[in-house]
Amino acid sequence: MAWFRRDNTPLTSSEQASRVPEGLWIKCGSCKDVLYRKDVLKNQSVCAKCGFHFRITARERLALLFDDGRYEELDAGLVSADPLAFKDTKAYAARLKDGLQKTGSPDALVSGFGKMETMPIVIAAMEYGFIGGSMGVVVGEKVTRAVERALAEKAPLIVISCSGGARMMEGTLSLMQMAKISAALARLDSAGIPFVSVLTDPTTGGVTASFAMLGDLNVAEPGALIGFAGPRVIEQTIRQKLPAGFQRSEFLLEHGMLDLIVDRREMRETLARCLRMLRGQ
Amino acid sequence: MAEQDFEAPLSELQKTLDELARFPGDPVKTREATRVRQQLDQQRREVFAALTPWQKTQVARHPSRPYLLDYVQALCTDWVEIHGDRLFGDDPALICGLARFRGEAVVVLGHQKGRDTKQKIRRNFGMPKPEGYRKALRAMQMAEKFGRPILSFVDTPGAYPGLDAEERGQAEAIARNLREMARLRVPIVVTVTGEGGSGGALAIAVGDRINMLEHSVYSVISPEGCASILWRDAGRAEDAATAMKITGRDLLSFGVVDEVVAEPPGGAHADPEALFESLGTLLDRQLGELRKLSPEALIEARYDKFRRMGQLGREFLDRAV
Prior knowledge:
CATH topology of the largest domain in chain A: 2-enoyl-CoA Hydratase, Chain A, domain 1
CATH topology of the largest domain in chain B: 2-enoyl-CoA Hydratase, Chain A, domain 1
Helix content of chain B: 40-55%
Strand content of chain B: 15-25%
Largest interface: A-B, 65 and 61 residues
Number of helices of chain A: 9
Oligomer: heterodimer
Number of strands of chain A: 10
Distance between the termini of chain A: 70 Å
Shape of chain B: globular
Largest sheet of chain A: 7 strands, mixed
CATH class of the largest domain in chain B: Alpha Beta
Strand order of the largest sheet of chain A: 3-5-6-7-8-9-10
Radius of gyration of chain A: 19 Å
Shape of chain A: globular
CATH superfamily of the largest domain in chain B: 2-enoyl-CoA Hydratase, Chain A, domain 1
Largest sheet of chain B: 8 strands, mixed
CATH architecture of the largest domain in chain B: Alpha-Beta Complex
CATH superfamily of the largest domain in chain A: 2-enoyl-CoA Hydratase, Chain A, domain 1
Order of helices and strands of chain A: EEHHEEHEEHEHEHEHHEH
Low-confidence stretches of chain B: none
Radius of gyration of chain B: 21 Å
Number of helices of chain B: 14
Number of domains of chain A: 2
Distance between the termini of chain B: 55 Å
Structural class of chain B: alpha/beta
Low-confidence stretches of chain A: 9-16
């Protein structure tokens, strides 16, 4: 009777060992090679053998892009007031506290103003370690303020996305941040100030469906999961297994959603070069 | 479709009423029928005034609820549907067209669900693909070009989460609509009539006035989706619906919506004419208010409206201040 039995093989989708693990020697999440941890960190958390990009924190991102890793942090004091007094199996207030403890940041985004290859610039980076990099009111507000700062300084804006999407614990208010940020980006666009969106693993949901896709240039790190719906939801909808490489950077490039895929070790130089040309310098 | 739990006592009374109606000539039965009808109306009012967020979700999804084409038929004349995004195809899940509303030429757009199985499949259960959102943007930019106001009606479980939609850039299509709607130079009035399902709803819901019908819901994720992620049990949808504060009344208090439109007892489908009447009056009033604003003032006010969503001190604090 095997002809109507459903094939219940577990999903083999996206979960990779993403963060650089602790320890002297570590294993690459992709090629499984054993690597000396210090070498990996020196290499911007990219596997020297296969080029696998480990996930890095928002602050590490800013440090890699700003000149000498120095910048003025923006809106560092913003914290969620838990507007819905939300509670699931755990109180949202406790999740916020855990997030702070785990990442040292009060929410899932760090933004700064500084210089990149001497060019004044605003850069915001999302922190996946904080409730899956999800976007609630604080993330929405910080990105919007970053856009407004870029407008005021007439400086280009880079936003580095790394997020599971809008934050459920702030309900429809989270959804509205998509509109708020996009409206601010419309102003930046009208003012002719460049916005580059950098998409990293993973960028999905409401973040992809708002600012992450609105760059004058959309740039991704190699192999990043990027999409609107997550792979599991799609597999449940179409009741089929997804092809290998679906929703990866290379797939999006092929389908016209990205301008280029850039290795982390060349990111800063590439972004600076593009921005200079966009500004006619 | 099966009645909802909260409708059970009502259907009992309805059954009695139907039974009594079989004796139109009998004065005793007629008197009894009048009494039962009053009791039914009273009870229906009470039941629908006390619906929980999860029950409202059920009403919002009710298969007899008016859909876009019903609103068009009731509120507009001269309807001309337009098709296609000029890039890939036409999406029957999101309908756009030209129409007259109270004499004025407007652009109308919104999600369309189907009533029977065949129509449901054709309309993809009201879940648009990128070509639907791109068609909507084309229609809205045409409205801008010719100075026509836009009436948008929202009723979708969400944007379609499928392989083809991803390939064609579902996220990009939604994102672009959000940005472009923010700077359209004509009035946009949005009404959430049923399910306001996340980004798939918002992609046609950046407007100058946002209305919600009394028993509609507007949320960042479906209660089932939220429950299966946070509670790891889709059966906890009722808890998720409550926790996410998805009703018109909740969202009015957060400044996300401007008006909640009262529905007749029993919901919009129980007495659609009454609903069309009051909604028509509201839309007319709102368009009248917006018509007075210059395009610049309109865009400025729309920006401020969304800029305020999430306010210092209420939804978040600034520890540095």
